[in-house]
Hints:
Bound molecules: cytidine-5'-monophosphate
CATH superfamily: Spore Coat Polysaccharide Biosynthesis Protein SpsA, Chain A
Distance between the termini: 25 Å
Shape: globular
Number of helices: 8
Radius of gyration: 17 Å
Oligomer: single chain
Strand order of the largest sheet: 5-4-1-6-10-7-11
Amino acid sequence: MRTGAIVVAAGSGERLGADQPKALVRVAGRPMVAWSVRALARASDIAAVVVTCPPGREREMAAALGDDAPVHAIVPGGSSRQRSVAAGIAALPTDVEAILVHDAARPLLTPALVDRLTARVTDVSGVIAAAPVADTLKRGAAGDVVEATVDRAGLWGAQTPQVFGARVLRAAFADAGDAELDAATDCAGMAERRGVPVHMLDPGAPNLKVTTPADLRLAEVLLGAGRIT
Ligand code: C5P
């Protein structure tokens, strides 16, 4: 399906402690956001890529992406992730049949993963990158005391990219109120609440989200080792 992609890159990245937005921090020789846009540009079904950026940083974002990471539009993001996704949806060409949403904070994206996801999506469903939880899970009580061990059977960690039939994702956003746009942490949750079947696909390779300085060093090693060319 002809797919429009949104790379959400409007976060501040406070936990990374950088003096610039996280998406613009360089990792293995490129601004973090450029790794994802390059991977999308090399995938089979991506017709257009929209990048959301912190309001006022559009020029910096354009310079960071340069010519080797082509985009359809760079638009200011919103005050929450889902508001940034909404801004991205509004900027996509209206004729795309599927919409893929990806966090700039996951720079290990590969064209192969994008292709696997877009090959499975339909008009009326979603497909998301997700991995079965490997750790034993604890619910914490006050302080650092364990209240309970949570059964991890059937639990997955949701990642991005997340791809949906364009009509069902647009409908979910059209239906969402302020509270949901402020609180939802991914698009799949919004789709699920409206009865859209969402499938999970394990990337089978690291797809880490860069949050802390240690994550950044790990991404640097993995990208520097030439996972993506
Ligand atoms: O903050 P967190 O790392 O969970 O954000 C996930 C993604 O959403 C990041 O790529 C970030 O740039 C993006 N984001 C956004 N607009 C916001 C907040 C986060 O585009 N207001």
